[in-house]
Amino acid sequence: MTTGETATPLPTLADDLLTEGVPEAEFNPGIASRLPAKNVAGAALFRNERGEILLVEPIYKPTWIMPGGAVEENEDPRLGCRRELAEELGLDLEPGRLLVVDWVPRHGVWRDQLQFVFDCGVLDAGQVAALTLQESELRAAHFVAPADLARTPLTPSLARRLGQALTALERGTTEYTTYGRLGR
Q: Which of 48, 74, 105, 149 is most buried, most CB within 10 Å of its CB?
């Protein structure tokens, strides 16, 4: 683009849905309702200026997690991650590059899901000081050095997913994993 030119705005989701045409009708009534529903979540990989990773301590489970959360129905995972960061931490930041898509199988009360992990960059000291935890969901926020992650209360699958995200960040790649592991 040269000086003086303006970028053409991207079509909205509503525009794209209109160009798809009339919503498809079922030829076999009930088939769509029999398909499984899958949960989706968007997580943020934040670091501080010392390279430590931001993890949060939820009130609803015994282990720590990455900031972010469940994506609402018909919500883009990146936008869902952004919404969750605003709600849970008081951060209004656009998630960056996709680092990992991880399939997590059903386990206990949690249905299977796709976890999208986005690079959300480095928080400066002012941003860290301004973090505002949503008390109805989070007990605390912690910055953990990568070398200390093994001694942090994480599920094994999240530890693997986080490791894959750090590797993808370093290599400039995006990885697809199964329960935090490559090549399954």
A: 149
153 inside domain: yes
Q: Assess if residue 147 is contained within a domain.
A: yes
What span, in angstroms and rounded, lies between the C-alpha atoms of 69 and 117?
Answer: 10
For residues 47 and 52, give the distance between their C-alpha atoms in angstroms, rounded to a whole number.
5
Whole-model pTM: value is: 0.86
- Residues 89-147 have pLDDT tens digits of 999 999 999 999 999 998 878 789 999 999 999 999 999 999 999 999 999 999 999 99
The verdict on residue 77 lying in a domain is yes
Interval 1-53: pLDDT, tens: 556 667 788 777 677 767 777 776 777 777 777 777 889 999 999 999 999 99
Q: How many domains does the chain have?
A: 1
